[in-house]
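Sanity check

After download, print the first record. It should look like this:
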Amino acid sequence: MIKRHFWILATLLIVFGFQNNANAVSCKDLNTKDKMNKFMNKSNQSSPLLQKNISVTLILDACEGKQCKSKSKRAAQKETLRILKLDNKRRIYAEKGPNSPRCVIQRGGRRFVCSSCGVVSNENCRSFPSDGSSVFPGTNIDTADFTLTAGKENDMSCSKLKNPKFFKIETLIKNDSAENEQRYDKVLSYYDKEKGVPIMMNFFAEKVLRKVYRFFPKYYVKVDGQWFSTVMRVRTTLGKEKKFIFETLTHVDKKNGKLKLYLDLSDDPEFKNVPPESLFSTD
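Expected structure tokens:
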């Protein structure tokens, strides 16, 4: 009987041990440039903003210069944004804050700014050509920063850190094209071994630290088996992280203790029985 219980316990430890470490990765696993590229592209998907299909509500706190030191000014600018993405369509609805109740809708090559919106409605919309910008409106968050680090033309190397829970990938950006106006030439990205997700990304230009993305390990959560960052801080810097000129803080909102993050629009209770395409309608 004792032996039987021992083998049952051993089996459970093996099964659940493998499940818990399914995302675990180290430099030994990333011994080629191709493997590092694939890993970085996959790990970047832990950011809700990089998901192709998602419904997420973010509380956004962005500030510039001296405004960052004033709690009252920051509080006045804080926004609650409902973000929907479906294939090549995007909708950002300012539910609370200085831009409420406006929304911005992106469909293909057109951008629509609507002055009166609701959870499922878009009214008084004006159409503009899309500028193709990868910068999230009103922030220093640039989705192109993530694709930049995983470019196949870059030189990359993986190295261990003193803390065995993390490792680092150094990316040297190739700027061979005369038309390339990329501001950065080096990126240091730090990752959580067990989760296989980023915890920090440092962007440099001519050896000067220019931008820092921070993702906090304790605020990662699993949704449908995938790790997601629910809190992010982005600073545009002048050589040091503490010496910043622009800061954006985001965290995923909750309702009744549950994160408002859904990988399928139909899973969001706010859109139950609502045709997804209608959410991007501007007629």
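If your output differs, re-run the checksum step. Summary of this record's structure: Residues 265 and 271 are 7 Å apart (CA to CA).
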